From TrEMBL:
Organismal lineage: Bacteria, Pseudomonadati, Pseudomonadota, Betaproteobacteria, Burkholderiales
Keywords carried by this UniProt record: Oxidoreductase
Molecular function terms from GO: iron-sulfur cluster binding; oxidoreductase activity
Residue intervals of the 2Fe-2S ferredoxin-type domain: 3-82
Protein name: (2Fe-2S)-binding protein
Length: 82
């Protein structure tokens, strides 16, 4: 569909508006916006939204990225547990 982007978040197909950040897509995916878990298993989520706090780290197509600084791309594979 025009104006939309499809990606996978932890294997789940998610469609978002073109230009949406991965951090926003995490919310759309109904994952409560959780980007990763701490060493003790606590959920970590985007906090600053501007690339400073590092709380939104995810793996995108095998590379560690900041979800708040990454725009969704067609076919992107996002892993929050890696
Ligand atoms: S939300 Fe803080 S670096 Fe992404």
């Amino acid at each position: 569909m025009s104006g939309q982007t499809s990606l996978h978040i932890d294997g789940r197909l998610v469609r978002v508006k073109a230009g949406t950040s991965v951090a926003a897509a995490l919310r759309v995916a109904d994952s409560m916006g959780v980007a990763r878990t701490s060493i003790s298993g606590q959920p970590r989520a985007p906090f600053c939204g501007m690339g400073v706090c590092q709380e939104c780290r995810v793996r995108v197509d095998g590379r560690r990225m900041l979800a708040c600084q990454t725009v969704c791309a067609e076919g992107m594979q996002v892993e929050t547990t890696a």
